[in-house]
Each structure stands twice: as C-alpha cells, then as structure tokens.
Amino acid sequence: MSTASDRTAPGGTRTPVDARSGALVSLDDIVAARARLRGIARLTPVLTLSPDPRWQHVRLKCENLQVAGAFKVRGAYNLMAQLPPDTLSRGVVTYSSGNHGQAVAWAASRLGVPAVVVMPTTASVVKVEGARMLGAEVQFAGTTSIDRKLAAEEIQRQRGLSMVPPFDDARIVAGQGTVGLEILEQAPDVTTIYVPAGGGGLASGVAAAVKASRRDVRVIGVEPEGAPKMTRSLEAGEPVTIDLIGSIADGLLAVRPGDVTFAHVRSLVDEIVIVNDDEIGDAMRVIAREAKLVAEPSGAATVAAARRMAPAGSSGTHVAVLSGGNVSLETLAAILAG
After folding, report:
1. What DSSP state is assigned to residue 166?
2. What's this model's pTM, rounded to 2 decimal places?
3. Which of 87, 130, 212, 321 is the most exposed place for a label (fewest CB within 10 A)?
4. 4-71+170-336 with 73-163: one CATH topology?
5. Which residues contact 253 (CB under 8 A, 6 or more apart)?
6. Predicted confidence (pLDDT) per residue in 47-98, tens digit
7. For this structure, is 204 an active site residue?
8. CATH fold of 4-71+170-336
9. Residue spans per domain, the chain
10. In angstroms, rounded to a whole number, what is the distance separating the alpha carbons of residues 18 and 28?
11. CATH fold for domain 73-163
C-alpha cells in the first residue's frame, strides 16, 4: 500500500464531508468536534509503556481512562450534539459490540434523551451492564455487526429514533480524530502512531488529523487475525464482507469496514498490520505489569503491533492508542494468568 503522503493534497486539509458521501473529513471538522467535546471528553494522558530504558520509545495514549472506558464517547457525542433538538429529543438507537453502546448511553444520559443499544448475543457482560447502568435499553441480535445493524434499523423505523452508527459517519470520524490532535500536542516528537482498526472510525479520524498536520508521521492500523476486514478490503479495492473467524479482541470484530472509513484508511493510513491473539494477550500482560494499566484485548492490539514493529531499543517515538479498558475481571484474570 502506498503512503498517505503520496495521495494527500498540498496542505493536507480536506473539504467538509457529508455523512454519507465517503469523502474525507477536514482538519476544520476535527477542530470543531474538539470544541463540542470540551468539558465532555477527558484529555487522556500519554504515558510510557515501561520504566525499562529499552522501551522508553513506546508510549500509550490512554483512552482506556476515557469516560465510559473507551474513546467512543468522542464520536458519539460529536454526532448527537449536532442533531436538531426536536429530533434528538425523540431518542437515539445504535448497534455495538459494547464500547460504542456505552458511549451512546453516556452521551444520551448527559443530553437527557433515551437510548436503545443493540448488542450481539455474545457481548461481554461488563459492556452490557455498563450500558444498562448508564440508562440505555439493551437488546440483542445475532453475533455479527450486520445482524445488530439490521435490528437497530428496524427499531429506528418503528420508534422514530435517530441512528448513531458506530463508525461509518463523518461526524463519528471527526470526533475520533480529536485523539490524533491530542497525540500531536502531547508527544510532539512522535514518529509512528498505532491505531486499532475495527470498523475504522478511530483509525480514520486519527489519520485525518495527523496527516493534515504532520504528514511525516506514520499511521499504522492494527486488526486481529480473526477479523482482517480492512486488509481484505484494501486488497479488493473496495469494502468487502468477510467470514468472521473470531478473536479475543471483541471490539475489533466488524465483518465489513464502512464506506466512509474505508475511504479514509485507503487514502491516509500508511499500513495495516495483523496481530494474533497470543500477541494481544502478551501485550495485555506487559501493559498490566509495566504500565500498571488495565487494557481490554481490543485496546492492547496496538501495543502488540508496536512491540513487534518497534522492538526494545528502537529509534523514534511510537505511540500506541490504548483504545479501551472495558474487560471483565474474569477475562482479565484468565489472560493475565497466561
């Protein structure tokens, strides 16, 4: 795959994007999202992975410390805050493996509107209870992102709710892009950023922010071996639906990238790498032992990639986005025990 700098226009900025167009968001879109999120999303820290001098080049953008335990509130709130008041007041619906659902529930409670979240029947109990605790109505549908999307669309039609998609919307991408702006400010010496790639919203947003500002910084998307939907889509030249194999990284199991997110990844992300469950488990143990942080498997995937691609003693500054920390104590204990 060619580098983003080969395809980005001089200056790196893009025109504002319609939510359905597949065009790329601009730096202005992301800056506007940041203003909406002021006082809503936390400015999460960038910390070193380990006190070991050989690993000082790897740092963690700690979105596991974000409200609702993951980066997702950035995109969810940015979209919901732009809905007309009379539309928003009727409520919202979404479909999610967990973290986006919790983010929508949190944003809806903050805005004082009802929320319905459709989750897979295999959803993590901690994510289901998290959404319910935040006031959302939780329903279940199938095991794939397509199953729950169809169920959510039916609820939308029946109840007249507004859809808050998990990734395939420019307003979602712009909100997630605020992570990229913060990394550039908090780690100005950054040379490479690793971002998880599920449906692609976070990877798209971070890449849009970074490439508009620092085209020399490499952006690496990371997906699990059991759901290589972005890799397969790039090979095909268009979004494709894959047969799901599965992974411990439950938040990265979308079976198809979005049209909007695929356009961003193809244009702006330098490379997609695939990590396996053993590498993810090892990364979770390193994060807990060395950084004293809890990461869910989907969040630790980036650290798995960074440890492989920038081993101990490497040059440059490598920032891995620790995208979430919503993992049950039972799952965490089992993985930490090896």
Report:
1. S
2. 0.91
3. 87
4. yes
5. 97, 144, 145, 198, 224, 226, 227, 244, 246, 247
6. 999 999 999 999 999 999 999 999 999 999 999 999 999 999 999 999 998 8
7. no
8. Rossmann fold (3.40.50)
9. 4-71+170-336, 73-163
10. 14
11. Rossmann fold (3.40.50)
